[in-house]
C-alpha cells in the first residue's frame, strides 16, 4: 500500500481511503458486537418476543408496562441506592488514599499495589470470598464485630443489610481504581503551586480543601461518571452473593433484566428495560462530558 | 522591610553539595541579585531563604530574628516563581486574596488590599478573570500582586522574567525596578541572565558550584572581577582570555609574552607574580579599539572571521594566537571579513589573573 500526501490532483479521498481500510476491521467488530445488538435490542423492545411463541409488534406497550411495574420501580430504587452508596465512599476513600500515597515514604509502591490488587482480582472469585467473609456464623466480618463487642449481623440474609454488604464489597473493589486515577491527577498539579500555597501560609488541610480538591475537579467528574455508569450495570456480585434477594432487596435493573429475559423468557420486556438503562447511561455520559469540557475551557 | 543574614549556609542532597558555606548580608531595602550558571545553587539558596527546603547547616536570620527552623508560611517573605505558580482554578482576585484569607483577614480588609495591589501592578480591570485568560506578563503581575499583599520583609524572585519574550522582559525589568523603588522593600532576585543582574541590582552575588565567587555592585564586578569565573560571566560579549608567560618583573611592571600578541610590559600592584609564572590576561571586547594605538596601548593585528553589524555596535570574531577573540566596536566602522585589521587596547584596561588554580585577579583596574 502506498501513502499519498494529498497532491493537488489526489484529493483527500485517497488519504482517507487508507485510513478507512485500517479502521475497517475495528469498525466491523464494533458494528457486530455493539451497534448491531444495541439496535436489535431497541427493535426487540417494541415486540413481545419470547422465542416460545410467535412474535408480535406491541408498540410502546413494554414501556407503558415499565411505568406501572412496582417491581421495576423497586429495582430502579435499589440501583440508585447502590450507585450512590458505592460512588461517594469510593471517591472519598480513593482521594484520601491517593493524597496519602502521593507523598514520599517507605513502602509507598507496596501500599499502592496492595490497594490496587482488588481491581485486578476476578469479580466472581472475589464475590465468592466475600460470601465467606459475610458468613453469619464463622465469617471474619462477624468475627471482627464480636471481637469489638458488637453483635454479629446476618449480612447477606437480612433485607436491610444485604445491599449495604454489597456496597462495602464494591467500594473495596473499586477504590483502587479511584486511587490510581486521582494519583494521576495529583501528579499533574505542579509542585510549585503547593509551594506557593505553603508560602502563602496555607496549612495541610487548607491546601487539600482550597488547592488539591478544586484542581482535581475534572478528574472527580470523570471518576463520578465512570463509577455511576459502572454501578448502574452491577450484576456479577449480586448474581453470586444474593441472587437479588433477600425479598428482592438487592434486585437491580440489570439483574431484573437478566431474570426477565432468561428466567421468564420475556425478551421483549427485558429489551425495554435495557433500552431505558441505555438511555439513562447515555444521558449521564453526555452530561458528564459536557461538564468536563466546560471545566477544561 | 528587613535585612537578611546568611551565616555558613550549606545544603547537601545525598552526596551532592549544592551549597557550601554561604555567608552573606543583604541590607534592608537592598535589591540583591543572585546570578550564576545553571546548577550553581542560586535557586537552592533562594528556596532555603523561603523555607521551602531545610538547610543542611548554617543559620538564616531575617530582620535580626533566626528563621532557620521556621516553616515557609511563618517567615516574613513572599516569593514570585519562574512559572508564576498561580492557582489556575481561582480568579485573579482570589489568587491575590489567598494569602490574606489564610491570615483570616476580614472581607473588607481583603478587598481593600487586593484593590491596592492590583492597582500597583495595573490589573484592576482583570480581577474576575482566570489566569488562563491572561498573557505571560499579566500572570507574572498577578504573582507579584500576590506577593505584595503579604507585605513581606523580603521579596524573593526566582527567575521571574525567564518565561517572557525579549521585549516584555525589558519592560518588566524596568517595572520591577520601579516597584522596588516604590515599595522600598528588600528584594532577592535570582537569574542566570547577567544582563538582568547588571541592570537591576544594587548588589550582585555571583555563585558558581555552590560557592559565592564575588559580591559587589554591578560596576565593581564589571571593572574588577575577583577571578576568571566572574570575569567571564559578567559582561556581554564575554571577556577574551589568553595564556601569558611572565618574562620579567621590574618594580611595578611585569613583562609578559602572549601568543599572537607579542611581548609587552604591564603595571600591576599584586606581589604574587614572579618571572617564569604562567598567567592569564583578559581583554573585554569593548576595550578593543580600531586602529593602531598610541603609547600605553597594546596594539596587534587580527583578521576577522565574522563581522556582525548591529547598527549601534559591530561585533568581530577573529583568531588571535590559538584563541578566537571577540571585539565590540562602536558604530559601523569599515571592516570586512578576511581583511587584516589593526586593533589596540589601553594597557590600563588589561585584566590579569594568576594561574595557580584559582584564577584570582592580580591587577586592579582603576
Give a concise summary:
The complex is a heterodimer of chains A (297) and B (366). Chain A is an all-alpha fold and 297 residues long. Chain A contains 13 helices and no strands.
Protein described:
The complex is a heterodimer of chains A (297) and B (366). By secondary structure, chain A is mainly alpha-helical. In chain A, 72% of the residues lie in helices and 0% in strands. Chain A starts with 11 loop residues before the first helix and ends with a helix. The relative contact order of chain A is 0.13. In chain B, helix 2 (92-102) crosses helix 3, helix 2 (92-102) runs parallel beside helix 4 (136-148) and helix 3 packs across helix 4. Chain B has two domains: 4-233, 3-Layer(aba) Sandwich (Rossmann fold); 240-354, Beta Barrel (OB fold (Dihydrolipoamide Acetyltransferase, E2P)), CATH 2.40.50. In chain B, the strands form five sheets. In chain B, strands 6-7-8-3-9-10 form a six-stranded mixed sheet, sandwiched between helices. In chain B, strands 13-12-11-14-21 form a five-stranded antiparallel sheet. In chain B, strands 2-1-4-5 form a four-stranded antiparallel sheet, with helices on one face. In chain B, strand 17 and strand 18 (313-320) form a beta hairpin. Chain B has helices at residues 42-50, 92-102, 107-120, 136-148, 166-183, 194-200, 218-223, 228-233; strands at 4-13, 16-26, 31-35, 57-62, 65-66, 77-80, 154-158, 186-191, 203-208, 211-216, 240-250, 253-258, 262-267, 278-283, 289-290, 297-302, 306-309, 313-320, 323-330, 341-346, 351-354. Chain B is α+β, with helices and mostly antiparallel strands and 366 residues long. Chain B: Residues 4-234 form the ABC transporter domain.
Amino acid at each position: 500500500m502506498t501513502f499519498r500526501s494529498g497532491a493537488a490532483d489526489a484529493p483527500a479521498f485517497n488519504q482517507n481511503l487508507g485510513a478507512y481500510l485500517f479502521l475497517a476491521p475495528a469498525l466491523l467488530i464494533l458494528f457486530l458486537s455493539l451497534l448491531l445488538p444495541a439496535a436489535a435490542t431497541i427493535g426487540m423492545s417494541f415486540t413481545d418476543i419470547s422465542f416460545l411463541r410467535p412474535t408480535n409488534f406491541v408498540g410502546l406497550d413494554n414501556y407503558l408496562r415499565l411505568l406501572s411495574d412496582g417491581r421495576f420501580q423497586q429495582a430502579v430504587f435499589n440501583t440508585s441506592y447502590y450507585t450512590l452508596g458505592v460512588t461517594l465512599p469510593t471517591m472519598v476513600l480513593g482521594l484520601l488514599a491517593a493524597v496519602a500515597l502521593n507523598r514520599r515514604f517507605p513502602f509507598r509502591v507496596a501500599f499502592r499495589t496492595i490497594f490496587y490488587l482488588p481491581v485486578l482480582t476476578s469479580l466472581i472469585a472475589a464475590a465468592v470470598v466475600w460470601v465467606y467473609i459475610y458468613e453469619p456464623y464463622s465469617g471474619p466480618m462477624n468475627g471482627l464485630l464480636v471481637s469489638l463487642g458488637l453483635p454479629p449481623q446476618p449480612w447477606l440474609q437480612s433485607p436491610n443489610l444485604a445491599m449495604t454488604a454489597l456496597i462495602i464489597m464494591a467500594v473495596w473493589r473499586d477504590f483502587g481504581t479511584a486511587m490510581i486515577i486521582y494519583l494521576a491527577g495529583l501528579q499533574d498539579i505542579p509542585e510549585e503551586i503547593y509551594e506557593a500555597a505553603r508560602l502563602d501560609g496555607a496549612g495541610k488541610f487548607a491546601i487539600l480543601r482550597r488547592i488539591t480538591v478544586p484542581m482535581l475537579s475534572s478528574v472527580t467528574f470523570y471518576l463520578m461518571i465512570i463509577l455511576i455508569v459502572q454501578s448502574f450495570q452491577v450484576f456479577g456480585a449480586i448474581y453470586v452473593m444474593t441472587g437479588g434477594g433477600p425479598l428482592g432487596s438487592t434486585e437491580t435493573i440489570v439483574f431484573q433484566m437478566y431474570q426477565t429475559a432468561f428466567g421468564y423468557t420475556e425478551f421483549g420486556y427485558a429489551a425495554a428495560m435495557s433500552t431505558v438503562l441505555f438511555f439513562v447511561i447515555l444521558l449521564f455520559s453526555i452530561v458528564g462530558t459536557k461538564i468536563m469540557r466546560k471545566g477544561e475551557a | 522591610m528587613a535585612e537578611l543574614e546568611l551565616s555558613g549556609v550549606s545544603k547537601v542532597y545525598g552526596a551532592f553539595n549544592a551549597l557550601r558555606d554561604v555567608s552573606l548580608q543583604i541590607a534592608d531595602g537592598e535589591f540583591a541579585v543572585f546570578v550564576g550558571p545553571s546548577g550553581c545553587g542560586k535557586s537552592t539558596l533562594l528556596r532555603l531563604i523561603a523555607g521551602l527546603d531545610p538547610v543542611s547547616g548554617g543559620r538564616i536570620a531575617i530582620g535580626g530574628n533566626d528563621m532557620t527552623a521556621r516553616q515557609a508560611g511563618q517567615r516574613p517573605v513572599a516569593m514570585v516563581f519562574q512559572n508564576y505558580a498561580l492557582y489556575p482554578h481561582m480568579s485573579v482576585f482570589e489568587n491575590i486574596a489567598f494569602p490574606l484569607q489564610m491570615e483570616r483577614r476580614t472581607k473588607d480588609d481583603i478587598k481593600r488590599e487586593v484593590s491596592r495591589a492590583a492597582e500597583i501592578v495595573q490589573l484592576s480591570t482583570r480581577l474576575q478573570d482566570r489566569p488562563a485568560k491572561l498573557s505571560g506578563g499579566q500572570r507574572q503581575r498577578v504573582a507579584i500582586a500576590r506577593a505584595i499583599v503579604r507585605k513581606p520583609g523580603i521579596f524573593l524572585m526566582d527567575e521571574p522574567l525567564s518565561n517572557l519574550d525579549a521585549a516584555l522582559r525589558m519592560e518588566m525589568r524596568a517595572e520591577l525596578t520601579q516597584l522596588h523603588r516604590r515599595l522600598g522593600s528588600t528584594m532577592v532576585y535570582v537569574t542566570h541572565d547577567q544582563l538582568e543582574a547588571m541592570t537591576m541590582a544594587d548588589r550582585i552575588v555571583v555563585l558558581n558550584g555552590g560557592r559565592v565567587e564575588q559580591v559587589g555592585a554591578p560596576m565593581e564586578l564589571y571593572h574588577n572581577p575577583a577571578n576568571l569565573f566572574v570575569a567571564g560571566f559578567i559582561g556581554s560579549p564575554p571577556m577574551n582570555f589568553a595564556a601569558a608567560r611572565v618574562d620579567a618583573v621590574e618594580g611595578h611592571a611585569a613583562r609578559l609574552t602572549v601568543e599572537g600578541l607579542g611581548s609587552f610590559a604591564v603595571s600591576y600592584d599584586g606581589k604574587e607574580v614572579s618571572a617564569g609564572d604562567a598567567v592569564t590576561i583578559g581583554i573585554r571586547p569593548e576595550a578593543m579599539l580600531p586602529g593602531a594605538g598610541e603609547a600605553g596601548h597594546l596594539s596587534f593585528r587580527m583578521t576577522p572571521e565574522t563581522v556582525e553589524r548591529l547598527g549601534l555596535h559591530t561585533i568581530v570574531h577573529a583568531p588571535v594566537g590559538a584563541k578566537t577573540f571577540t571585539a565590540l566596536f562602536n558604530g559601523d566602522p569599515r571592516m570586512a571579513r578576511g581583511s587584516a585589521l589593526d586593533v589596540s587596547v589601553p594597557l590600563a584596561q588589561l585584566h590579569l589573573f594568576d594561574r595557580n588554580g584559582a584564577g584570582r585577579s592580580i591587577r586592579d583596574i582603576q
